[in-house]
Amino acid sequence: MEVLLQFIFILLFFSSFVTETSASAKLQGLQSLFPRDSLSVENEDDILVSPNGTFSAGFYKVGTNAYCFSIWFTNSANRTVTWMANRDKPVQGEQSNLIFQKNGNLVLTDAYGTIIWETNTFNQDPVSVQLQETGNLVLLNQTGGIIWGSFDSPTDTLLPHQTLRKANILVSARGPNNYSSGYYNFHFNDNNILSLIYNGPEISSVYWPNPDVSVFTYGRTPYDSSRNATLDELGYFMSTDNLNFKATDYGLGPKRRLTLNYDGMLRLYSLNESNGLWKITWLANINACDVRGLCGQNGICVYGPKASCMCPPGFRRTDPSDWSKGCSPEFNPNCNNSEFVQLSHTDYYGYDLQNTGPGKSFGSCKNACLADCNCKGFAYQYTGQGNCYLKSILFNGYQMPNYPSVMYIRVPSQIATTARDDVKLNIPALNCSQRNVVIIQQPTENNDKHSYFKYLIGFVVSIGIVELICINFGWWFIKRIHRMREVVDMGYVALAVGFKRFTYDELKKATKNFKEEIGKGSFGAVYKGVLDDGRVVAVKRLERISQGEAEFWAEVSIIGRINHMNLVRMWGFCAEDKHRILVYEYMKNGSFDKFLFSNSSESLVWTKRFDIALGTAKGLSYLHEECLEWILHCDIKPQNILLDDQLQPKVADFGLSKLAGMKGINSHFSKVRGTRGYLAPEWIMNQEITSKADVYSYGIVLLELVSGRSVLGCQDPLVQWIEEKIKQDEGIEGVADPRLNGDYNHKQLKKLIEVALLCVRGDKKERPDMSHVVSILLRDD
Ligand SMILES: *[C@@H]1O[C@H](CO)[C@@H](O)[C@H](O)[C@H]1NC(C)=O
Ligand SMILES: *[C@@H]1O[C@H](CO)[C@@H](O)[C@H](O)[C@H]1NC(C)=O
Ligand SMILES: *[C@@H]1O[C@H](CO)[C@@H](O)[C@H](O)[C@H]1NC(C)=O
Ligand SMILES: *[C@@H]1O[C@H](CO)[C@@H](O)[C@H](O)[C@H]1NC(C)=O
Ligand SMILES: *[C@@H]1O[C@H](CO)[C@@H](O)[C@H](O)[C@H]1NC(C)=O
Ligand SMILES: *[C@@H]1O[C@H](CO)[C@@H](O)[C@H](O)[C@H]1NC(C)=O
Ligand SMILES: *[C@@H]1O[C@H](CO)[C@@H](O)[C@H](O)[C@H]1NC(C)=O
Ligand SMILES: *[C@@H]1O[C@H](CO)[C@@H](O)[C@H](O)[C@H]1NC(C)=O
């Protein structure tokens, strides 16, 4: 042992000698501050550095004209902040200073000279301020004793050698780019247990370790009241409550930090100095949806490759940029006149009213809720025990595949009725797990190799294969990774029944080596194939998709969950090496354009045309409003409307604009997609693209459908031609496709043309929503 220690010391000495010479050459900044010295926000070089340069301290920009005095890792790709003096009170970019006063106080002043933050160390005679190699900013006295150290007032990060004591709390940041104090805390609770706690404006609750289970289950002990915890430089975490764990890369070398992230997750990171990126080497075993408060009041966290939030029917996001503010009802709660909307596989944690428990029939559970004005809804479990939970607050909602609980949320009768109408329109609004979903961004520690590790964890935990920290991590971890991979696969099967990940060989076999090409779209060729189980499929080989496997998988699994009779169903995908392939149901009748523009005399009869107009509108409406607000099609044209056996339309290729790397609503699309003639004017003018661009393309398709003229073929612009034609003697009738031989419903023709002309308005604000189009077409007038 002694020999080993000596060896390490020699090694340390030697390596420090080497790094010191090389480091000091490029070191910029000050080593110490002495009384009356100050650092100015305006001078970029006013930075304190640690002896070997690992850490720097100075003014860090946290917003426009907002700075915090901070400590960060010098060598991470982006400055990784480990401590902030004034995270909740940033100072301006002019005339703010950190001053080491003559009286021994270290103060931060803003432009008006007001003291924003101070160490309160006057009369203790500190003689210098230094940033130690550990990342501790210290005030030292004559004999080198530490008068004050930043380690004693941590923000969201614990560094090796730093002790988390009784009085210390790690407090997460507010958001990915907002360093002010957030709602998550990590500290010793009153029972001497290190816990993660959501401490929000209205509610606080412990979420780790699982409060429903005895702490002994997790090997913790509440007996030691001295309450301290440290991370050593080998990557071993030790706590008086017996929470001990090791980094996966345990050993001397990498710089590490334990950070409570804004998403409520506690992660240990190691720095890869060759590229400056952080990799996660330990993670508290928490499923993202178990983090309390993530989706705010009324919000529901949806388990998936990435956790995401949604609002229940009748509710709307309170703040589109901040899920923690949850969802607000779109109605005035009215106890007298209420009904319930239903959400499958859903529950809300906690806040049960008294009248709760097993042995209730559904009817008595429902009536108990109706009878109590404090009841916001109830969860009923169809497990045979009649478990009925009445809720006084809807908080910490979660939705999980196969979870045997149905949540009934109390809403005024009108709202419940609208929800039922949606079902009647073939828009299964209550089935739409992705309603109002926005993916919660993970913090950007983009180490591709480990990105799958990130989302593995969620699955591993949710599926329940939780193994606590293992002392012999080495071989165990490698073995485990293999098992985790299988678990992820299983997770996906559960996530979207019938949605499958195919191997390349399977698809090669199914398509007889991609023999029969049945189409070619903007994303690549489509082949016909037959799966082992006899299903006929259309196999689309994507080109130019640069997404990594995990990202692609995540996107595609969302598209795979979309299930609507007017949308082509995706059955699976393949992401192997460079191959990115999608597997769809096969549409025997091919695309609509073949029928519409064929020269054959027997073209589509009117009733079929109207069905196609209506069905396409329903499909798009589902994409735009009911389900995924951010799914814009971006390439609506007859070629992308496929017809099934009954000549019912199904929209194909939706969601692909996302795969091609376009962003959602409110961003500028790259012009990867779109077909001339169908493009909305704002698209051509490179303005913001919204769902109204699809509405425009749909309008053009309608005009083609009634007139039988292709927007691509005709000499006059189609819209203009139709408008002229209407002005002539025949009026609307003159527009009708001559191949119909006058055999059509005049009222419907008029309606379609009117709707189409609304849809192709130049000003997108004047175009109707797709759901509005559906209701116009359905109206009996
Ligand atoms: C930093 O340099 C000192 C000598 O100045 C050396 O003793 C120490 O081991 C070095 N630390 C690191 C982390 O390189
Ligand atoms: C950070 O979040 C807080 C609380 O929501 C807010 O007041 C503040 O303006 C935000 N700061 C920035 C830079 O966005
Ligand atoms: C650094 O930050 C910028 C801006 O926030 C971001 O675009 C970039 O991806 C980050 N780089 C890394 C390596 O995290
Ligand atoms: C310096 O601080 C240390 C620890 O706080 C203390 O023990 C020591 O007496 C102080 N020395 C002087 C000269 O004040
Ligand atoms: C933490 O507590 C243990 C046991 O009470 C004690 O031995 C140890 O010295 C403490 N560590 C620190 C850094 O205070
Ligand atoms: C550090 O990054 C480099 C370059 O990306 C990579 O080759 C190396 O394997 C990484 N090291 C570790 C320990 O991850
Ligand atoms: C509900 O009914 C009670 C008595 O029947 C009445 O006093 C109250 O105003 C009603 N509340 C609402 C919101 O209609
Ligand atoms: C809801 O989704 C499930 C599974 O995707 C499906 O079986 C069911 O028919 C859907 N319900 C409605 C009302 O569409």
UniProtKB/TrEMBL annotation:
SUPFAM superfamilies: alpha-D-mannose-specific plant lectins, Protein kinase-like (PK-like)
One CC-aspect GO term: membrane
Residues binding ATP, per UniProt: K540
InterPro entries xref list: Bulb-type_lectin_dom, Bulb-type_lectin_dom_sf, EGF, Kinase-like_dom_sf, Pan_app, Prot_kinase_dom, Protein_kinase_ATP_BS, S_locus_glycoprot_dom
Keyword Membrane attached: yes
Residue ranges of coiled coil: none
Subcellular location per the Swiss-Prot or TrEMBL entry: Membrane
Keywords of the record: ATP-binding, Disulfide bond, EGF-like domain, Glycoprotein, Kinase, Membrane, Nucleotide-binding, Receptor, Serine/threonine-protein kinase, Signal, Transferase, Transmembrane, Transmembrane helix
Location of the Protein kinase domain: 512-781
Recorded topology in the membrane: Single-pass type I membrane protein
Enzyme class of the recorded protein, top EC level: transferase
Domain EGF-like: 285-321
Transmembrane segments: 452-478
Annotated GO MF terms: ATP binding; protein serine/threonine kinase activity
Keyword Nuclease: no
Catalytic activity of the protein: L-seryl-[protein] + ATP = O-phospho-L-seryl-[protein] + ADP + H(+); L-threonyl-[protein] + ATP = O-phospho-L-threonyl-[protein] + ADP + H(+)
Signal sequence interval, chain numbering: 1-23
EC number: 2.7.11.1
Domain Apple, first and last residues per copy: 335-412
GO biological process: recognition of pollen; response to other organism
Residues of the Bulb-type lectin domain: 24-152
Family per similarity comment: Belongs to the protein kinase superfamily. Ser/Thr protein kinase family.
Name listed for the protein in its UniProt record: Receptor-like serine/threonine-protein kinase
Lineage, broadest ranks: Eukaryota, Viridiplantae, Streptophyta, Embryophyta, Tracheophyta
Gene: LOC120268916
